[in-house]
Amino acid sequence: MATQVTATANTRRTSSFLRIAIALQTLTIFLQAVSAGLLLTSSYGAMLHDAGSRVMYGASMLYLLAAVLAWKPGGGSPRPVWHATGFLALASVQVAVGIAHVPSVHLPLGVLMFGLSVLALARR
After folding, report:
1. What is the dihedral of CA 101, 118, 66, 27, to 10 degrees?
2. pLDDT tens-place string over residues 18-68
3. Rg (Cα) of the chain, in Å, rounded?
4. Distance, first Cα to last Cα, the chain
């Protein structure tokens, strides 16, 4: 009986961690859109957008970690792991095209990533 109660508590905890990780990722992507606007209008926008890209990438890694923790020890579905892995791949492409200064790919991909992140957050 105690094992079942502990397992249920662990499942709730990892599910909450996953939800928080997705929310953090969504927030960082939104802040990247804000800093992109500042990039066009102020001298410090480039610095904010660059720093934000690192934070967004870290948030994507945290999302993957949370998905693995929710799946493996918690016995949940592996589907969030695949979503998080795909999102980390998109984030990697986003960083690469941002460094290469290809706005024709960078901007639509950012919008897509924000939409997918909001969708993942709504599904949790």
Report:
1. 60
2. 999 999 999 999 999 999 999 889 989 999 999 999 999 999 999 999 999
3. 17
4. 28
Residue 21 burial (C-beta neighbours within 10 Å; 0-12, 13-18, 19+): buried
Q: How far apart are CA 105 and CA 96, in angstroms?
A: 10
Tokens of 25: 């990722």
- CB atoms under 10 Å from CB of 96, counted, come to 12
**CA-to-CA separations, 103 to 49, 95, 99, in angstroms, rounded:** 14, 11, 10
CA distance 56 to 60: 6
Whole-angstrom Cα distance, residue 23 to residue 44? 26
CA distance 19 to 118: 11
